[in-house]
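To assess whether the prediction recovers the assembly geometry, we first specified each molecular entity separately, as shown.
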Amino acid sequence: MKKENSSKLFPRAKEVMPGGVNSPVRAFNAVGGEPLFIKSARGSKIIDVDGNEFIDYVASWGPLIFGHAHPSIVEAIIRQAELGTSYGASTELEIELAEKVVNAVPSIDVVRMVNSGTEAVMSALRLARGITGRDKIVKFEGCYHGHGDSLLVKAGSGLVSLGIPECPGIVSSLAEKTLNLPFNDIEAVRDLFQREGNEVAALIVEPIAGNMGVIPPKPGFLEALREETKKAGALLIFDEVITGFRVSLGGAQKLFGITPDITCMGKIIGGGLPVGAYGGSKEVMDHISPVGSVYQAGTLSGNPLAMAAGNVVLDLLSEPGVYDLLEDKSRKLCEGLEKNTRELGVPAKFTRVGSMFSMFFTDEPIENFQSVKTSDTEFFKRYFNGLLEEGIYIAPSQFEAGFMSAIHSDKEIDQTIDASIKALKAADS
Ligand SMILES: *Cc1c(COP(=O)(O)O)cnc(C)c1O
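The predicted structure of the complete assembly is given in tokenized form:
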């Protein structure tokens, strides 16, 4: 694999950006520390500045459920760009996207668009604190909810990949208000709510954990969260920034039949442009300004380009059969990968919900942050680089999810399964 041009760009990037990147995991620190620079992408393929072509299972960390540069999405963006890129005023496009979200997501009657998942979550926490008049937030170890101050305590995603347990710069009085529990541990949740449930403003959870690798909720876990928060008068926040429109049109809440009080979204609803959103019942959302006094605003919120792209994606997703197709492709890939590890005797555990999946190099059953941490990250590093050599691009960390798109072909999936045999052998030697 040629790396000349990427290797030339990296020192230049490092001169002017922290670590040469605008988001930490991109720096490839967990897999050798030489990132690829991307030149273009189309469909399921991503192409770097050296002309290397990869089948992409990162999908810009989840948004690209129809792959790169989907013609209908590109067309919608171009059409809108010609009409103006931002007005800082209301548009019909925003109403259309909001209506689609409200129709699809069971718990949402009213939704506010923002510019990122982080912003959606920060706003949701403020809303919960504003409604309850309480300060404490409960979250789960290894879940990631963006980089808002209250949530960077024992968080997943880049903090796990880079081994950062506590982020400096967080006001300690704020960090103290964040209580961390092990994911999937119903007893721990019940104990905490018994002790101090009446001080909790909100419990926030990724209903399917996706930022320590994929961990599905155990049966009864989400139900227990709903029950305990309700009893305590605390709000239940589902962070569906990944799962929203990924695991079903109505997100994880539809899949599992649990109704949260506030839902955060991002990634897919922007069709690859910067977007976030949070919503809930009218009663809850009426606390947001200008109706209520919980303030939250944004210069570029509801940006017409992002709304145009989001509208197309949600239309494409509501066509019949899309989620079955995603399920079939993802199952085929994961079964193939699993067969390879079995035949080669490599210890590995697989997790998957629909088109989000993980492969952990461990023997431990995958239940929570403790169990994923038993993975052999050195093996992963060799495996990752082996796959890259074979033209397969997965997230450069053991603790990130893989994403299938609706346009990965059967041939590409077979190619990936074949490549994994070579990568596993190379990693094992
Ligand atoms: C990606 C992500 C976020 C943060 O979204 P950004 O757009 O990166 O700010 C929040 N929560 C979850 C579950 C995510 O996966």
